Amino acid sequence: MRNAVIRSSGAYLPKRRLTNAYFDETLGENVSEWLETNLEIYERRWCAPEESAVDLAEHASLQALERAGLEAKDLDLIIVATDTPEYLTPATAAVLQYRLQAGHAGSFDLNAACAGFVMGLDVGAKYIRTDQRYKHVLVVGVYAISKFLDPLHKKTATLFADGAGAIILSAEETEDRGYLDSELITLGQYFDGMGIYGVGTKNPLTPEAVANKEHVLKTNYRFPPTLNPQMWTTISRNMLKRLELKPADIDQYFLTQININSIRKTLDNLKLPHEKAHTAMRNYAYTGSACIPIAFNDAWEKGKLTPNSYVFFIGSGSGLTFAGTAFKL
Q: How far apart are CA 66 and CA 70, in angstroms?
């Protein structure tokens, strides 16, 4: 059986480091206490003025390639999951393909907001499983959201941050490891809850739109706080049932890193210890479509993952979009 296996990972965080104290000073109030007590976020990284999404993606990709023992010319496909692209058009993936000098590898962007990376893994794995021409697929999640933030908006500026993570999927003749299952769900009734609404065809970026800050991330209402845990639990249970596994059989759950309490509630629902979900929020805050590969790479580097480990990737993003994929390492 031809399957897609996780061959390597990589990550990159910008050098510009902002602690909570920076926002205490900038906003003129104590936000550190709430961030640290409720979200366990202490610092984050933002792009330098000259950095953009493809810079972050390139660094993460090069690390993943080096660890895989591959050259960029070995890649057959590049998928970039982002909703903070280099340009509205052309695709960020095309720019990355050129920067890497990846031969004539196919490339495209995938925008499912912060669930995009997990969907990218699903798509990349299915290319490998169904088409013999695809042997190595690079999947990158990148977030340069600081370019679209109002730095004085307390609820977004303190939570959202930049970064990139990458995974290389490779073809292997095996029945013992690799891609196992996936599930995609959308609750489109929440499309207007959070997003950047002023740079598309619905609301073109006019001088008036800029004055109204339509080009920055906006939160229009609060999502039900139980929604993420409910959806993540449902996706987990559905995949477990199809795979004939129990919750405890999964070695690590990599969940969207937006709220530590939602992650813990999901594990409580599955009757699992909180250590089953590795997080990287403390130092990197919320990095959107990059947060899951960043957390995975961090766990890999810290020795929390070994051959034969079962892992679930479950993401959620504006839309609202939800995605889960299961792999055996």
A: 6
